[in-house]
Specification:
Layout (H helix, E strand, L loop, with lengths): L2 H26 L7 H12 L6 E2 L4 E2 L8 H4 L1 H4 L5 H14 L1 H12 L3 H12 L1 H8 L8 H13 L3 H12 L5 H14 L4 H26 L18 H10 L1 H8 L2 H11 L10 H4 L3 H9 L17 H19 L1 H23 L24 H9 L7 E3 L13 E3 H6 L17 E5 L3 H6 L6 H11 L2 E7 L2 E6 L8 E4 L10 E3 L2 E13 L2 E12 L7 E8 L5 E8 L15 E9 L8 E10 L10 E2 L10 E7 L1
Parallel strand pairs: 3-4, 3-5
Antiparallel strand pairs: 1-2, 5-7, 6-7, 8-14, 9-10, 9-16, 10-11, 11-14, 12-13, 12-15, 15-17
Helix pairs in contact: 1-5, 1-7, 6-7, 6-9, 6-18, 7-19, 9-10, 9-18, 10-12, 11-12, 18-19
């Protein structure tokens, strides 16, 4: 192997060696928040058991939403290690190895030497590549590898391998069919012959039409595509969008040329010093997915962070290589090659540092456009103990933070969908299952209990769901509760007391609420320490709204150690439901970091509105229990 080829292989190995441990570390720290990776893993797990393409998080066959057929092809590899980690490792491997055909294209187009190696290096440093490697598993993230090889075989005039890689690429997601059709159009323009043009055109257009207009609607029960609202401005349907591109080009240009979309294009092409713009013919192959991104009204679609860029990435580099070759031909290799390579290196490394995560992998503070790097979670060990307490394979329910960890089962119910009464952002009604054996619920998850929580309907849905599945609380660590079917409650998170009371005083008065009493008690079980906070409340007067609390823990020297936002009744009985004179005993648990030294610690409270903008509530308190910065002191506890 030549010297530069050896260096190229070393760079690919270095990327894999750097990113695979990061993905593992992020998974072990519960960093794969949301349902994307969980969906891919659940489908792969179900495929091996004969429930092809089934995802309970999407209410049935995933092909009603996306063409995730590629997961079927991964089944032999996934069978070796049935875990989300297998998919994360495979995705990293495929994304890295897509650089090899790009390197070979560069060698073929611009000759040997260090410049093809530079293109490979810049590919591995390309900000969109770093983000999609670290964020979530998506089948479309396997497309760059397949499309790059398809292009290389296209250039080498090897029809069989070209068509094979193109067909497999189409299995990663439905929009890749447009890339296949673009290959056919290019072959037609180049007059390559019918088999090079007709087969990709027919495969691409035929597969997309069969999938989008027949298979997916059939699996959705005739419901329209949930993604059509993404293109409401451009027409709102596939036919209307296509017609507007031809009949109303000014409308389309008005959407595409908005400042946010132009910034997106700048970030796509700037790391290659805008060389791809010099080769519009090569860019034509990624025009369909790029146009889909630019026409979308959802801002996150036209952003370099997410998986929507996966089919674009290889062609940005192929076009960059073609642009470099074009300038080299115009200016002469001797005068152009070295200064152009230097400018390209500065642009690629500079924009990678500014926009992407690759050059910040060892940073504990870098956030970038999105916080995609793994972060230390002091609660990780306790969380994994709770996850292991959920039996494998049995129907379970959870919310965003635990979707991925619990996704190796046929039935995984979504607590956010239950609270919202619908499938995610879709209008389809969702009452929730009735055969759940365990539920692992993070009451501190803001996405679940703000975005998907309706204060008028969600509490009743939540209570009914727990009752329908006969779920009893068996353990709680901090705000993470483990429920098991048929078990009695080990502790009542809240309970309604008889009116009247025993003559307690008043610690603090809020709008429509009285805090009668608060008690702190340390607890320790299975190596985990926490503080139990028992509080007695009474509804008194109007204007209660929905009240939550910020609990703050401070050390012996007065420094703040942690904060925890908690709803008084854990979103099961919000204060807006309380009746005049109702007395509620609430219990909260503040998990203590494992490395916290023993000593005396104080706990303080601040009342806030449950929903944004979460303003701080005014209150009147007994003298001597309000801190200088306006917090209500609940007392001290020895740990």
């Amino acid at each position: 192997m030549k010297k530069y080829d050896t260096i190229a292989v070393s760079l690919l190995c270095l990327y894999i060696a750097a990113f695979v441990p990061l993905c593992v570390k992020k998974y072990l720290a519960f960093g794969y928040y949301d349902f994307d990776t969980a969906t891919a893993n659940q489908i792969a797990w179900n495929n091996l058991r004969g429930d092809l393409c089934y995802s309970s998080l999407h209410g049935g066959n995933i092909l009603g939403f996306h063409a995730y057929l590629f997961l079927l092809l991964l089944s032999p590899l996934y069978a070796l290690w049935q875990s989300p980690l297998m998919l994360l490792c495979l995705q990293t491997l495929f994304l890295a190895l897509a650089g090899w055909p790009i390197y070979l294209v560069a060698k073929r187009e611009i000759g040997g030497g260090a410049v093809p190696l530079l293109f490979l290096l810049l590919y591995l440093l390309y900000p969109p590549l770093g983000y999609i490697t670290l964020l979530h598993v998506h089948t479309v993230n396997f497309a760059p590898f397949l499309l790059a090889w398809a292009y290389l075989f296209y250039r080498r005039m090897r029809y069989g391998p070209f068509l094979a890689f193109l067909v497999v690429a189409m299995s990663t997601r439905e929009e890749i069919a447009f890339v296949a059709a673009a290959f056919g159009a290019c072959a037609l323009w180049e007059r390559r012959g019918l088999r090079w043009s007709v087969a990709p055109l027919c495969l691409g257009i035929g597969w997309f039409c069969a999938y989008f207009f027949w298979l997916a609607p059939h699996l959705r029960g005739g419901a329209p595509s949930p993604f059509l609202p993404f293109y409401a401005e451009a027409g709102g349907s596939a036919g209307a969008v296509a017609a507007n591109i031809i009949r109303r080009p000014l409308l389309i240009l008005g959407i595409v040329l908005r400042p946010a979309k132009l910034l997106y294009l700048f970030r796509l092409f700037a790391p290659l010093a805008f060389l791809p713009l010099l080769a519009p013919g090569a860019l034509f192959l990624c025009l369909p997915p790029l146009l889909l991104n630019l026409l979308a009204t959802k801002p996150y679609v036209a952003d370099i962070i997410y998986q929507y860029n996966a089919p674009i990435i290889p062609f940005v580099f192929i076009a960059g290589i073609a642009g470099f070759r074009r300038l080299q031909g115009l200016l002469g290799a001797a005068a152009f090659r070295r200064p152009a390579a230097a400018i390209l290196a500065v642009a690629g490394i500079g924009f990678s540092w500014r926009l992407g995560p690759q050059l910040h992998l060892l940073s504990d503070s870098w956030r970038g456009a999105v916080d995609c790097l793994p972060r230390t979670d002091p609660m990780a060990a306790a969380k994994w103990e709770l996850v292991r307490a959920v039996p494998d394979g049995l129907p379970a329910a959870t919310n965003f933070g635990f979707f991925t960890a619990l996704s190796s089962r046929k039935e995984l119910d979504s607590i956010p969908w239950v609270l919202a009464g619908r499938f995610g952002d879709l209008p389809s009604p969702y009452p929730g299952r009735a055969d759940i054996q365990c539920a692992l619920i993070d009451f501190g998850d803001p996405t679940t209990f703000v975005k998907f929580y309706d204060p008028r309907r969600s509490p009743a849905r939540f209570r009914e769901y727990l009752a329908r599945n006969e779920l009893g609380l068996v353990r709680i660590v901090g705000q993470i509760a483990l429920y098991r079917r048929g078990s009695p409650d080990a502790v009542a998170l809240w309970e309604r007391l008889a009116p009247g009371g025993g003559g307690e005083g008043i610690l603090a008065a809020f709008d429509g609420l009285l805090l009668r009493k608060a008690e702190l008690a340390p607890e320790e079980a299975r190596g985990m320490r926490q503080i139990r906070v028992s509080s007695l409340w009474e509804a008194a007067g109007a204007g209660r709204g929905d009240l939550s609390l910020i609990l703050r823990m401070r050390g012996p020297e007065g420094g703040e150690l942690l904060r925890q936002v908690a709803c008084i009744c854990h979103h099961l009985h919000p204060t807006s439901e309380w009746e005049e004179g109702e007395r509620i005993q609430a219990r909260h648990f503040v998990a203590v970091p494992p490395d916290l030294p023993r000593g005396v610690y104080s706990l303080q409270m601040l009342p806030i509105d449950t929903f944004p903008p979460c303003r701080v509530r005014q209150f009147a308190a007994r003298p001597g229990i309000v801190t200088r910065d306006g917090w209500l002191s609940l007392g001290d506890v020895r740990l």
